[in-house]
Amino acid sequence: MGASKDQRFTLLEGEDPESIWGALVTASYFPAMGIRPQLGRWISQEEDHAGKSDVVIISRRLWARQFGSDPDIFGRKIHIDSRQRSVVGVMDIDVAETDVWVPMALDAADRDDRVSHNLDVFGRLKPGVSPEDAATELKQIARRLETAYPGTNQGWSVVVTPVAEGRDGLAYLLLSVWGVAGFVLLIACANVANLLLARSISRRREVAIRMAIGATRVQVIRQLLAESIVLALIGGAAGLLVTYWGVRALNTLGSDVLPITVRIEPMLLIFTGLLSMITGVLFGLAPAL
Predict the structure, then answer these.
(1) What's the rounded Cα separation, in Å, for the pair 27 and 43?
(2) The whole model's pTM is what?
(3) Is residue 114 in some structural domain?
(4) What is the pLDDT of residue 146?
(5) Beta bridge mates, 11
(6) Are residues 153 and 204 in the same domain?
């Protein structure tokens, strides 16, 4: 299990101070979430204690913007609020607007505090354990705490929610968008196939002349397929351009609307190229035949 708490920090690098979003996290936070830094390491258990917590993990976004993606960033001390912290890792993912993660470093007074309820807590289930099983066990613990500490724990229980549901169905939203995009692609390809079919009818005389002077059916089909594939690749390139604009627009909405930062992965280029080739062949084949 791990815990976190969002917090504003002041980054004192460069000419002007900059207000950034960050998070106080326990050392177990990143292992619980199954997240590994792109570079460097996690916060260690030793660093999650008062007096030993002068370390920080920074986002890839902050690393590029403020430090020019300097590969020698590790061990460098940066000023956050009134403290100098050594950079120990760079996160590969962009989580909402969070740019720094620092140890929570709860002291004895914090650990004994049963009044504050301001931490987000995450847990990783063992294999074969369902969220319902975890909820049952945690509710039993909560009841024991009510009995042991009636003054502060009375009426408090536990709700277990899978991370996917905790993100308000974000995964289902993205899958729905993907499905709609695929449906629109089908309609567009069918329309283009119809246009190519109509165009091929008007080119009967041209095709007849080609075959009369020795062109085979395979050569004619190959020519028409090449034309449809070129059209598909142009469409794929235009789609990537629209995607680039769309991603920039999504990321300007802020974390209140979209709780993650969207980016274009290099694999998308390969996927788009292959998809364009396949659609060019499939939907160019009918008019070619």
Answers:
(1) 5
(2) 0.58
(3) no
(4) 92
(5) 18, 80
(6) no
Residue 165 placed within a domain? no
What number is the average pLDDT over the span 43-70? 87
Q: Which tokens is 96 given?
A: 């909402």
Element of type H or E holding 55:
strand 55-59
- Within this chain, do residues 154 and 176 fall inside the same structural domain, yes or no? no
Q: Is 150 exposed, middle or buried (0-12, 13-18, 19+ CB in 10 A)?
A: exposed
pLDDT at 40 over 80: yes
Q: What is the DSSP string of 162-208?
A: -HHHHTTTHHHHHHHHHHHHHHHHHHHHHHHHHHHHHHHHHTHHHHH
Q: Alpha carbon 43 to chain centroid distance?
A: 22
Q: Does residue 208 fall inside a structural domain?
A: yes
Number of domains in the chain: 3
Are residue 20 and residue 63 in the same domain, yes or no? Answer: yes
Per-residue CA distances from 18 to 28, 68, 221 (Å) = 28, 16, 62
What's the token pair of residue 78?
């940066």
Write the CA distances from 137 to 41, 133, 142, 156, integer angstroms: 32, 6, 9, 15
What's the angle, vertex CA 165, arms to CA 158 and CA 41, rounded to 5?
85
Please give the pLDDT value at position 147.
Answer: 93
Q: Are 99 and 6 in contact (CB under 8 A)?
A: no
Shared domain check, 175 and 152: no
pLDDT classification of 134: cutoffs 50, 70, 90? very high
pLDDT at 148: 92
Structure token pair of residue 219? 């050569």
Distance CA 3, CA 31 (A): 11
Which position has the token pair 């979003």?
Answer: 21
| Residue 130, both tokens | 């369902």
Q: What gap in Å lies between CA 77 and CA 202, rounded to an integer?
A: 71
Give the domain range for residue 152. 125-160
Mean pLDDT for 140-151 is 92
